Amino acid sequence: MAPNAEGLSGAMEEGVVDVREVEGAKCFVLDTESMVRPRHVEKDVQYRILRLENGLEAFLMSDPETDKSAAAVDVRVGYLSDPQDLPGLAHFTEHMLFYSSEKYPKEDEYSKFISEHGGFCNAFTSAEDTNYHFDVNSGDFAEALDRFAQFFVAPLISKDGVGREINAVNSENSKNLNSDVWRNMQLWRHLSKPDHAFHKFGTGSIDTLSRMPKEKGKDTHEEMLSFYSGNYSANLMKLAVYSRLPLDEIEHLVASKFSKVKTLNKAADVFPEDPFHPTDHQRLMVRAVPIRNVHALDLQFLIPPEDEVYRYTPCHYLSHLIGHEGEGSILKLLKDLKWATSLSAGPSPESYSSHSLFLISIELTDEGNDHVEECCKIVFQYLELLRREGIQEWIFEELKNVGETKFHFRDKQSAGYYVREICSGMQVYDRSDLLLAIHQVPREFREDAIRAALDVMTVDRARVLWLSPAHKGKVSGVEPWYKTEYEAEPMSEALAGELRSCGLNERLRLPARNQFIPTNFDLVEPEEGFDRPRMVRKTESSEVWYKPDTRFKTPKGQVYLSLVMPESYATPEAAVCTNLLTKLLVDSMNEVTYYAEVAGLAYAVQSTTTGMQLIFSGYSHKLLVLAEEVLRRLLAYEPNEERFGVLKEQMQKDFENTKFDQPYQQAIYHTSILCLQKKWHIEEYLDVLSRLSFAEFQEFLGRLMRRVSTQSMFLGNLTEAQCVGFSEKLEDIFAEAGSRPTFGSQAPEKRVMELPAGAGRSYSRPVGNEDEENGAVNIVFQIGLDSPKRNVTLQLWVQIAERAAFHSLRSVEQIGYIVCVMGWDSHQVKNVYFILQSSTHHPVAIDASVEKFLVEFEKRLAEMPDQEFADQKQSLKQSKLEKLKNLAQEGKRHWKEIEEGTLSFRRQEVEVEELEGVTLAELREFHVRHFERGSKERRKLSVRIISGKTPKREDAGEGERIEDVYKFKRGLQTYSLI
């Protein structure tokens, strides 16, 4: 390498601080001194930005502490650039690049390498970008990067793979067809100028990529090659790399591998034309029929491009106010009127660089569905309030303060996610702003920029989408790709006139100043040797665990609190009432807690099978203040009958809508019903809700808190004295409310059914949604109770099997888009799940394919070379010893040990020690015992979700069928608790 090589650079262009030569290729080093960097989380990370001679720009990060390295490339071309007659071509191209390359011609070589070395790889196609990314164990990064670079240097885009990947794209599209999110996005696009790129269907399907091209005499493979060669140009690519290597070594790797990428020196495609006709597509009222039982109201506005004014964050300012949930907000008023349960506001996912879209989404109640025009009026009254009050600098500065604090004290992210975000941001943001901009931190107050967005949020530019099952049979339009039934008409003159002259509403006002914004970031000095949680208090009613932050040195904390209440899950009625209480509690506190959430504090309250769990996290300065406020309100809570009715209705809909979940999710749910000793069914909950009265709910609350015990963990920038003091105060609060500790005999038991050994069992259910064309199966192999040796042997088996299964069952057999093999913990019982979903293969046939795969996999294990086995063990070891990245990860890990009673806080180290002794012979024996058909120790359960649109099967497959779930469970033993 030759810094400042004489005669190499000539006069330096602006922003270039150095020019080097790496293996004959010029490498321009760009200025990073002006770039704002996080003061805390990346204080030891070094940065460098390069531009290679071919125009590719690369952002290099050297972090000596990272055990995972990562890279991502963002290509500035997406589905907006698809040919009009080949929808989905950009997405299909993304799929095809994973096959092979001239340097690595073996199919699936890249993905296999990443998987076998502790990594993950993926890609996505959006409107204007295609993004490829991976992470891998740091010691294998150079080899992984070389394979990755071949995507852009010399891919082998084999014609043999075209049919398979068209099927993969079609399966991906198939799983989205009954998703209201995807359907709504495409409906918004459909309601635009037909010849505009915005109108396109980006995913693709077997129709768009196979049938339609053939009818027009086009070869999809040739079209894809043309698309790749015409758009995958180095000057349109941004690369981000994160590694523990020194910057000079990363630079050499990048320059030597990516300088070979060809450049066309072409400009990125732009789409400046307005996508909407002012009379056909604006001031528009659309009625549409959703898949789920939901009423919703969306208002969409075309606003000036956010990318051009990102420093002033107009969308962030407006979404903060319009989406606020405190007193005086749109949502608070709609809730008081019993018309809505939730509201969100912000940039629409349909936005792109030339045009931003702002979306306000309101979930309506049944009563609100009868007052849609009044709901619209309240929104426009709030917009009028914002115009009359003017753009408030103090609100912007508050958001800037919160944003900068979050930026400088943000949690460390996974390397793979971070590089993906950075290279996407490089396409849009200036170098000096890049790191701030990808975290949406406001930079500079510009009233005119915010005003420009607000001023176009008018009735005449509004696009209103009203979703309701009540529209079924009353609309005549059908969106062509997702078959959404809709009707689009100009907003009536009467309504438009009323909204234009809506005036102000005295119940709407701007939010108050936020009292939860932290100001104290001092760090607690932890005691020596505090490397795991310790029990610091135990009484008749409480157990308190504590661990200070010894890793991350951040002014944040975590509080986990489990309220053990024997009454809470005793019956389906009790479970429903406890769940409803959590929702009512959150609802009643929202006007206060929303301010805390804006300021960087978070909390969650949820019912469990043992009672209730509360989790608080965020800046330690006011964390315990929030926790105490929530708990006091819980114990003093007096239910409101109106809110009871609204949230009971919402809860009922939520349970009813589970029938529209993805089939594989339904399979996992029914697996839990079969395998957990005590788990009430959604059908039971719905029966309870249909009869539950307010008086019955009140009566239940009167006895719920009679006996309560607590288990808690405090983690982070908190002192032991603070935590013990808080727990003492908590005991006093419960005692004042009349609660007594639980009896020892009431200790909760979380028992798991022991599946029968030998012949497998199967359970079949029809898919909940009759229009769903996908079926699914979850094939469970129950391995046994938690133990270090068993755990690592299972993890090693899964690590080797998951990539092999993905290639065999998805790539070769083309079963479907969702093919997953994973370890699954049911409390202390270890399992292996094979989760597959398909629109072309019946679940019984999928089961047979999995059995065939297991036979093939046994042969692979039998023939596995010792060195490959050693490499697999080393990869698992590195994954298990991967450093925790943030306090949240540490909290989840420790709390699981406390909650389950296992208390193995050194689990990773102990299991790695056991891993050293696992032999290949033991792994083969593990496979034979748990997966070989005919093994007397195999415990297999197939949970099948059957679609009426899947080809019929006469045979039921192997294994005894379960006809009565509860009779089946009564005949089983449960695993003993540790």
Automatic annotation (TrEMBL):
GO molecular function: metal ion binding; metalloendopeptidase activity
Domain of life of the source: Eukaryota
Domain Peptidase M16 N-terminal: 61-195
Domain (Coenzyme PQQ synthesis protein F-like C-terminal lobe) ranges: 798-895
Ranges for domain Peptidase M16 middle/third: 407-687
GO cellular component, one term: mitochondrion
Keywords for this protein: Hydrolase, Metal-binding, Metalloprotease, Protease, Zinc
InterPro entries per record: Metalloenz_LuxS/M16, Pept_M16_N, Peptidase_M16, Peptidase_M16_C, Peptidase_M16_M, PqqF-like_C_4
Pfam families: Peptidase_M16 (PF00675), Peptidase_M16_C (PF05193), Peptidase_M16_M (PF16187), PqqF-like_C_4 (PF22456)
Residue ranges constituting the Peptidase M16 C-terminal domain according to the UniProt record: 220-401
Gene3D superfamilies: Metalloenzyme, LuxS/M16 peptidase-like
GO aspect biological process, one term: proteolysis involved in protein catabolic process
Family: Belongs to the peptidase M16 family.
Protein name (Swiss-Prot/TrEMBL): Insulinase-like metalloprotease
Native organism taxonomy: Eukaryota, Viridiplantae, Chlorophyta, Chloropicophyceae, Chloropicales
